[in-house]
Amino acid sequence: MPKKTRSVWEAGDRLLTVAEVAATMRVSNMTVYRLIKNGDLPALRVGKNYRVRESEVDRYLAARSVEVEGA
Length: 71
What we know:
Order of helices and strands: EHHEEH
Helix content: 25-40%
Number of helices: 3
Largest sheet: 3 strands, antiparallel
């Protein structure tokens, strides 16, 4: 019986470019590269380029979000 693998598309998880991640987070591309290099934002290499799973961006933002009282 063949092994069942879970692809990115089956999981409903998109692979985002560094520019897309930067736009989502409202930071520069260099900030995204720094997060990847420091291991704060897991990424995949596709050729010479990085791709970041959309769920990893969501996880990163959720872990660093702060609720403001009285807003």
